[in-house]
């Protein structure tokens, strides 16, 4: 394994960091969060037009850049540093890979170039609070998260040549603003119970979308109500939907891990700057040994999480499922960096006006959506069969 970055990867990081430094300062971020969509409407077209960010991990055959998950993860690390509220995660790490993996050639040709150009954004909608389950991050995704033949979730039924979807979905990332929705629905009843993915237009008849108040305002969420909404089956009826969700989930976890590392690194950086300026007893508090020890522990955690996240992003090319474990370490590092930042900023650290609480909410919000950390690790241990009883040869 070559741990060094290529010149192209270094250029992606440098260019993106410079652009985001100019466009995503604390004031610009708060202004974006107050908009109806919770995003800066000019930022995504800029990232798409100047950097080709939406198509970074899509094949050149569909007007993408042709890079890998590793490049997308490095880009996510930079957006995580400034908590940029963009459709990067929902569109590029969740929806687009599923269209690429499961879609028919006609569906790929119609959708992927528009996703790569940034003209179309997309979101993955799974019932309940089951996103981590559907992506196989905290357990087997073959359970009843999509309805399981019982009432609840989203149900799909045939009406002649059409598919109609009925139900409600909570906690859909960017679901209020995405132009395309990938809705997981249960169909087949008890006899032929299965979960399928359907393409639903954002302006479809019978679809009601409401932006929800979320713990992490930088990660906008929506509630979807589907009342006999017409959907188009993604791919074929017999496609391995659960397998595709698990594969995409591992890659998305690697992207999320890098994003969390970027946020943790920035939170630590801001804290180090502050303790070098704030004085008590005639000296900077950063010179106190106790403060040094606390920040040194945070630094070690962030660097360890960065190594794990980079490895997970690199390993996706070889189909080695370590994304969930890297995500657990990154979320833990972010939570600790944000918490120490609040503590060491003293009286201003917990105020609404300071940005420290935004990083803490990002850590807590991501754990609610994709964790928690102990379940991510438990699933990784189960997958590796660490705690199974084994016969010992004598």
Automatic annotation (TrEMBL):
Keywords: FAD, Flavoprotein, Oxidoreductase. Residues 254-380 form the Acyl-CoA dehydrogenase/oxidase C-terminal domain. Its cofactor is FAD. SUPFAM superfamilies: Acyl-CoA dehydrogenase C-terminal domain-like, Acyl-CoA dehydrogenase NM domain-like. Gene3D superfamilies: Acyl-CoA dehydrogenase/oxidase, N-terminal domain, Butyryl-CoA Dehydrogenase, subunit A, domain 2, Butyryl-CoA Dehydrogenase, subunit A, domain 3. Residues 6-118 form the Acyl-CoA dehydrogenase/oxidase N-terminal domain. It holds the Pfam family Acyl-CoA_dh_1. Belongs to the acyl-CoA dehydrogenase family. This is Acyl-CoA/acyl-ACP dehydrogenase. It comes from Streptomyces gilvifuscus.
